[in-house]
Amino acid sequence: MAKKIPVIKFHKDKYGDELLIDVVTLDMIRNSKGFQEVMRQSFFGIMLTTGGEGDVEVDGVPCVARKGLVACARPGDVCTVLRDDGLTSLELIFERNFVLEFFNDAHFLDNLSYFSPRRKSPYLQLDESLYNKVVALYVEIQLEISHARDRHLLRAMLYETLMLLQKATPVEARQRESSETRVARFRELVNEHFRTENSVEFYADRLCITPNYLNKIVKQSLGQSTKEFIQSRRMEEARRLLSYTTLSINEIAEELHFETTSYFIRAFTLVEGITPLQYRKSHEK
Amino acid sequence: MKKTALIIAAVCLLASCGNNNNDKSNNNNQPSNNQETMNTPSNKEKAVALLKAIETGAGEPIAFVNAENYRQHNLGVEDGLDGFGRALAGLANYPEKARVNTVRAFEDGDYVVCQTDYNFFGPKAGFDIFRFEDGKIVEHWDNLMPYDGKLNPSGHTPFDGTTEFTDLDKTEANKAIVRNFVQDVLMGQHPENLTNYFDGNNYIQHNTAIADGLDGLGAALAAMAEQGIKMEYFTIHKILGCGNFVLAVSEGKFADQPTSYYDLFRIENGKIAEHWDVMETIAPESEWKHQNGKYNFPK
Fold this sequence. Notes:
The complex is a heterodimer. Chain A folds into two domains: 7-170, Regulatory protein AraC (Jelly Rolls, Sandwich), CATH 2.60.120; 179-284, Arc Repressor Mutant, subunit A. Chain A is elongated and about 80 Å long. By secondary structure, chain A is α+β, with helices and mostly antiparallel strands. In chain A, strand 4 and strand 5 form a beta hairpin. Chain A has eleven helices and nine strands. In chain A, strands 1, 2, 3, 4, 5, 6, 7, 8 and 9 form a nine-stranded mixed β-sheet that branches. In chain A, helix 5 crosses helix 7 and helix 6 (200-206) packs across helix 7. Chain B is an alpha+beta fold. In chain B, helix 1 packs across helix 3 (43-56). Chain B has two domains: 2-146, Nuclear Transport Factor 2, Chain: A (Roll), CATH 3.10.450; 168-287, Roll (Nuclear Transport Factor 2, Chain: A). Chain B has a five-stranded mixed β-sheet, covered by helices on one side. In chain B, strands 6-10-9-8-7 form a five-stranded mixed β-sheet, covered by helices on one side. Chain B has helices at residues 2-13, 35-39, 43-56, 80-91, 171-186, 213-226; strands at 71-72, 99-108, 111-119, 123-133, 136-146, 204-205, 231-242, 245-254, 257-268, 271-281. The longest helix of chain B has 16 residues, at 171-186. Chain A binds chain B through residues 14-15, 22-25, 27-28, 48, 50-51, 88, 90, 128-129, 131-133, 135-136, 138-140, 142-148, 153, 157, and chain B through 185, 188, 191-192, 194-195, 198, 200-201, 213-215, 217-219, 221-226, 230-231.
């Protein structure tokens, strides 16, 4: 099945020859080609918050980011910034192979507390001393990349960073959002966007969940499919426009972003049992 | 008397390195009582007065320059005192009034370093270095860059920050720290030594584009890498210092352009605490007004 959430890939030849490690900023990720607010990354990322404040979400787990908060993302994790009040960060990113090329232990990364598949939280909080050490390592890595690009030195600096982070305090993860909260947010989003967006994928992306999962929780909570719910919200609006405005059927189809007028008429008739024109006439009386 | 007044006004702003016999007036709020200072200004006072004359048009400080032997290293100004004179004459036709406020100055042996907030053919930040022989200026180097008055990401200008010269007994140790830092980190010989040079993340940055701290430096390095901009240091030409302040004069490339770097560091307890810099693109040789070169410091 095709992935619905776009994947951000590692820019391997940014420095000419292939290099599987880099340090980037939040702004740079946002300015990268094909960037969308909700993305999966295909590499490991250790985002160190350096200033400002925001709400971030990694792998469905939300957290408030302030200076010293580290968000650890594994390949495949969905990462997003939900609120940004001047958030700044430095992110160390690397491919699994950059580490595996040297370490014999294939599970080395998975055994780190913050990258483990069984981790309690993807977040760490650094105290001032650890923050300073990690920032300095990031800058050393950047300087090495911009000069000799010695892979062994870079790997040693990465190793030191990974080991230092083992000493950091894990941040108690907030409870995963309940499905009820998610459905409530879904309904708000539909109210906001139903005129222009009617794909399940659009809403699933905004909620940082898969379309299948969205369908499941909407069905459980509202007793109808996601598609049906979005469609019923559009029809409700269509009825209002038919009753209270003099917009033509064409104009209403256009306003609600139906592909064609005849499709709008068919869809409306299917739900209401009468055509839009008949509906308007019956409400004029 | 005008000359004396000018010198006294200037010297009150500036600190002394304490290594010059003539330079005793700094802690004196009534310099008129100090006959020695009035009669024999220090090299630093002479350098500051000469620069200020660019703004005031005072003729007297020109006498501090050795008229027979004045070697110019600003590549856009002709050699000799007459060359300097011709550059000043051009100011008369410039639409903006010249401004020269030297914010820091110090002596190191026969050299005087001045850091100046200029309007010299437009607003600029600059460093000047003068070499003295027998009390007269015989050689001049500088690095200038346009400065639009904007604050950097941490709210600093290329001039503000402390002007207090301390640790006068640590000049040589601090010069060694800066030389090693430029070699290890800026020239990239041992980037892994970075942490040795800083007190954690405490680093006040006056570069016009970079924020405070090592994290600010990290963000700037990331942004440059993303744009494919390389900042390269190849050669250290001169290290001059006075107590807690050390200037490194280096040559390299910025974004593939031959570039002259003047980096002033303030050292506190053996760590780099603050940084001011001026970067100047080195003009191609075809545009040089003389063949003295931009550096060529005497051995």
